[in-house]
Write a structure and sequence with these properties.
two-stranded antiparallel ribbon; globular; nine-stranded mixed beta sheet; binds 3-hydroxy-5-(hydroxymethyl)-2-methylisonicotinaldehyde; UDP-N-acetylmuramoyl-L-alanine:D-glutamate ligase
């Protein structure tokens, strides 16, 4: 039962091309055995649909963990995304500590908000719990909004100078983060990308591409799933981030200018490109 496998913990938004409906196909396409643990089940994501259902699965986690332990199931990495409650973060740490292989990695996308705002249902208490959770991770993948909330600072949409990036990374390290991949960084006009802090080399690098105008829902999850898969496959932090940037751009291009498809991107159409990128 102990082949290398990844466990991803995030919600199922039944419709909407985000979280588990993005992570599972991406990790599978990368050839990785992927186990899933839904943190909650929603009829749709919360970014633009009205009247969605929400079933929190927090209290299912301990029994699931106990069963896995009885079966001797182990995970080579856990990648977490949208989590339904602060209490779940402690349960997830228990799952990680009790089912990890010796060389396992905890990869955390602290999904809480975007475009300067927290998502519906999140508050500062959750942000504080997420900060403590990030301190346990090997890699964190926050966007600029999540960085701002975790540091208690004002959000800046653009004009992210190297000084600003260094300041945010120093702040995240102060709360205990190790390796950091910050998304949504705009250092030059017309470009967007990520800043990577490698804790081993103590170096920051930037990976950016020409910015595609518009707002594309679910692209953070596409980035984080691809990064987690590539990193799990043994790519360096910088290489995994580059592959994730390139696949996210390819996924956005499938939907560029298509205003009818407002709730996500057609990342499925770009999966063949991802398979080529990791070969
Ligand atoms: O894409 C992040 C995300 C994940 N899960 C749910 C969401 C969102 C963003 O809005 O609503 C349920």
């Amino acid at each position: 039962m102990n082949q290398k496998r990844i466990l991803t913990i995030q919600d199922i938004s039944c419709v909407g091309q985000c979280s588990l409906t993005v992570a599972l196909p991406i990790l599978s396409a990368m050839g990785i055995e992927t186990a899933v643990l839904p943190s909650a089940v929603l009829s749709t994501h919360t970014g633009g649909f009205k009247g969605y259902t929400f079933r929190d699965l927090t209290e299912d986690l301990p029994a699931i963990k106990e069963h896995w332990k009885k079966e001797g199931i182990r995970f080579g990495a856990i990648y977490t995304g949208y989590v339904g409650s602060a209490k779940q973060l402690q349960y997830i740490l228990d799952i990680y500590n009790e089912t990890k292989t010796d060389d396992a990695k905890l990869i955390v996308d602290p999904v809480m908000g975007d475009h300067g705002k927290l998502y519906a249902g999140f508050n500062q208490d959750f942000v504080d719990s997420m900060k403590r959770f990030c301190a346990k991770a090997d890699v964190i993948l926050p966007n600029i909004t999540e960085c701002s909330f975790m540091l208690g600072e004002e959000f800046h949409v653009t004009g992210h100078t190297m000084e600003y990036v260094e300041h945010v990374i120093a702040g995240l390290r102060k709360i205990g983060a190790k390796n950091i991949v910050m998304t949504g960084v705009e250092m030059k006009e017309g470009e967007q990308g990520v800043a990577i802090y490698n804790a081993e080399t103590d170096k920051i690098s930037i990976c950016s591409r020409p910015r595609i105008p518009g707002i594309y829902h679910g692209t953070g999850d596409i980035f984080s799933s691809t990064f987690s898969g590539a990193y799990f496959l043994g790519k360096s932090l910088e290489e995994a981030a580059r592959i994730a940037v390139d696949y996210t751009v390819a996924a956005i291009k499938t939907t560029e200018g298509d205003t009818e498809h407002w709730y996500g991107v057609r990342f499925e159409k770009a999966l063949p490109e991802l398979i080529k990128m990791i070969q």
